[in-house]
Every structure is written in C-alpha cells, then in structure tokens.
C-alpha cells in the first residue's frame, strides 16, 4: 500500500515548519462488525477521514485522512480562502 498522501502531508508540514502529523485510528461498532477510520492531528487540530473501512484497510483510512488534511492546508493557504475564512495553520 502506498503512503502517497501521508508522505505529501508530512512534507507539507516540514515545509511549513510545524510538527509532523500524528495519525489516530478510530473504530465504530456497527451491528456485528466494526468499521475503522482515522484522524490526523496537525499542529493541535484534528482532521477526520471522510470514509470508514474494514479493519484490513486501515492504511486506506490514514491515506484518506492525509488527503483531506493536505487539501485543507492548501485551501487555507490560498489568498482568497485565507482572507475569507482565516488560516487554520
């Protein structure tokens, strides 16, 4: 499994001189099964993955959280976004 988004997020944190991302795995009991997802902590903020996965796909959950976080970082660094919403980073 590729860690493409996780690596990109870690590089973005390095370039912004903030601590590296910390991933947290979360679970939710759903009937007879458990669904798994991830959250990533960046500079004291938590960003949740969009999707829930089967336990064998935990790396996908981390990748999803990393993608969401990186896209949010990029969006908040754009001049039009930063002025209208304030920077999260």
Automatic annotation (TrEMBL):
Organism: Sordaria macrospora
Lineage, top ranks: Eukaryota, Fungi, Dikarya, Ascomycota, Pezizomycotina
Protein name: DRBM domain-containing protein
């Amino acid at each position: 499994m590729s860690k493409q988004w996780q690596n990109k997020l870690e590089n973005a944190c390095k370039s912004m001189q903030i601590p590296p991302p910390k991933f947290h795995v979360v679970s939710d009991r759903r009937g007879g099964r458990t669904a798994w997802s991830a959250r990533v902590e960046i500079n004291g903020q938590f960003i949740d993955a969009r999707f829930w996965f089967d336990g064998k796909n935990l790396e996908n959950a981390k990748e999803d959280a990393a993608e969401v976080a990186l896209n949010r970082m990029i969006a908040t660094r754009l001049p039009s976004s930063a002025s209208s919403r304030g920077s999260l980073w």
